[in-house]
Amino acid sequence: MTEKNIADKLLQINAIKLQPANPFTWASGWKSPIYCDNRKTLSYPAVRKEICEAFVSKIKELYPSVELIAGVATGAIAHGMLVAEAMGLPFIYIRSSSKAHGLTNMIEGDYSAGQKVVVIEDLISTGGSSLKAVEALREANCDVLGMLAIFSYEFPVAQQNFEKASCAVSTLSNYSTLIEHALTKKYISQDDVSSLQEWRKQPETWGK
User: What digits encode the pLDDT tens for the residues 75-118?
Assistant: First the structure.
């Protein structure tokens, strides 16, 4: 139920847009029938509260021994901070790369070697940038229990990357649930479904 509720909220506030007939172009050059901007959720108090509560519930279920919450910059910093606040836990965040000045930190905030960390992410596509944050934490000798994200495109390559990195990952909602719900609520037509499903299988060649 949580997966469907989150998908519904993301569609309602246009954090996710579906345009199979007029695809978006990602920075990578990929053509995409979907665009996801979970930063929009922060502008809607009821939505960000529901997301925070869903994260907290999953963490308590999956990682009850957690000692530290980490957010991946930049999209998940605010969500991670909200989760840490709700759980009364310390918070850190991980940059996409080390600072070029000062202390040249990649991880910002106080932490200790051996601390049990849950990483919060806003969106998982291929998993590359998300796992870069996990790698930074592991290099700092933190014990990464797993990663939680708001949404995943469910690319097969992402699953392979997380398995290769031996990192558990869970999401509040996902592409399969989104398409099913979007069809039910008439955001898309039945004719759109096959195209949307094909995109997830081969996003790098879809629309070319």
Answer: 999 999 999 999 999 999 999 865 545 445 799 999 999 999 99
List residues bridging with 116 in a β-sheet: 143
Look at residue 71 and give its three-state secondary structure: strand
Q: Are 7 and 181 in contact (CB under 8 A)?
A: yes
Structure tokens, 78: 């605010």
8-state DSSP, 42: G
Cα(195)–Cα(59) distance, integer angstroms: 34
Ordered structural domains, the chain, with CATH: 2-201 (3.40.50.2020)
Q: Which residue carries 């509040």 as its tokens?
A: 172
| Among the listed residues 126, 146, 125, 124, the one whose alpha carbon sits nearest the alpha carbon of residue 134 | 146
